Amino acid sequence: MLVSGPRYSLGRQRWILPRSHCLFHTVHAANIPPADLQNVLELKIGEWSPYAHTGRYVSRTGDLVNIWIWDQEKYRQQAEQIDALKAEVIPESLLRKPESDNIVCLYAAHIGYEGQIWEDGMLIASHWWAEIPGSEQWVHFQLRNDRAPQDVPEATATETLRQMPWGRKHNSLQSNLQNHEYTLVKAVAVLLFLSFVWYGATTVKISRAIDTLQKQISETEQQVNPILSSRATVYTYLDKIRQLRGVTLYPPQLLIVEQVITVLPKTKIQKWAYRHGSLTVLLKGDNLDPHTLIQALEAQGLYESVTAQRGKKQGQLEIRLQVSKMGTVQ
């Protein structure tokens, strides 16, 4: 049932949900820490609800929490047909309250009948019947809620419902999301659309920036290519210069031969190998003294290092010299 809201609700529409469409439960919150109450309520609703998507209205009076739940998907389908998705959903029971704070009463609801038990101004029990309950049903309802059995009262017909619910909605992120889900969906859709527009505009800007950058890179390459070509030519010449310098890096080999021969004893030279400043001389003779030869060669001041070791065959002595580069000869 769709009605317009009272003046102080700014004319917002309200969907009065018949009691026949709701399930009712209560939770005693006296021993539940406030920080845990919301989680406890969500767990309880999950246990009680037979629906895939559950709508709910949670109200707290003192230590008693009243909970109405309904099939949210079924409500949505009906609301879409009359463009009422933005309407505030209020269970019918919340717009009907007896004058007495302690009473067991029976109301003629919008559809069927609702039995209520009130204690100290709190609704502690509610049950719905499609028809007026029989004596056995009514007694069972009272006994189930620890009440002394009374006869079935005359059903009270409420012609005018309350302007506002007698139970204020308990703050709940989940319930707020449920009640404003349509608005949230539209807001998300708008945000997605704006994000798409922004993304499209940004993509165009980036594409243009890339084109400009590529043009600048092309122009810079045309300016830099001659410089790079000249640089490559310079490096080629430098390599040739280094090669030429490498040829004359060490003293002439003839000078080295003359100097080495002067200190060698009268013996047989079996090997003479010289390459890039490294000289290997293999001698064969009797009583060759490596220490004497090393001292004599080092005294010439032409070598960075002089080593000597016995050859593979008897009487052989291998001498290795690393010639100093020109300009470092002592």
Descriptive key words:
single chain, alpha+beta, 2 domains, 4-stranded antiparallel β-sheet, 7 helices, 39% helix, elongated
Describe this structure in words.
This protein folds into two domains: 2-171, no CATH class; 253-323, General secretion pathway protein M, EpsM (Gyrase A, domain 2). The strands form four sheets. The protein has a four-stranded mixed sheet with strand order 9-8-7-10, covered by helices on one side. The protein has a four-stranded antiparallel sheet with strand order 11-12-14-13, with helices on one face. The protein has a three-stranded mixed sheet with strand order 1-2-6, with no helix packed on it. It is elongated. Residues 2-10 and 173-179 have low confidence and may be disordered. Strand 1 and strand 2 form a beta hairpin. The chain starts with a strand and ends in a 7-residue tail after the last strand. The protein is of the alpha+beta class. The longest helix has 67 residues, at 181-247. The chain has seven helices and 14 strands.
Describe how the helices and strands are arranged:
Layout: E1 2-4, E2 13-17, E3 23-28, H1 34-48, E4 54-61, E5 64-71, H2 72-81, E6 88-91, E7 103-108, E8 113-119, E9 122-129, H3 135-144, E10 156-157, H4 173-179, H5 181-247, H6 253-263, E11 268-275, E12 278-284, H7 290-299, E13 303-310, E14 316-323
Parallel strand pairs: 2-6, 7-10
Antiparallel strand pairs: 1-2, 3-5, 4-5, 7-8, 8-9, 11-12, 12-14, 13-14
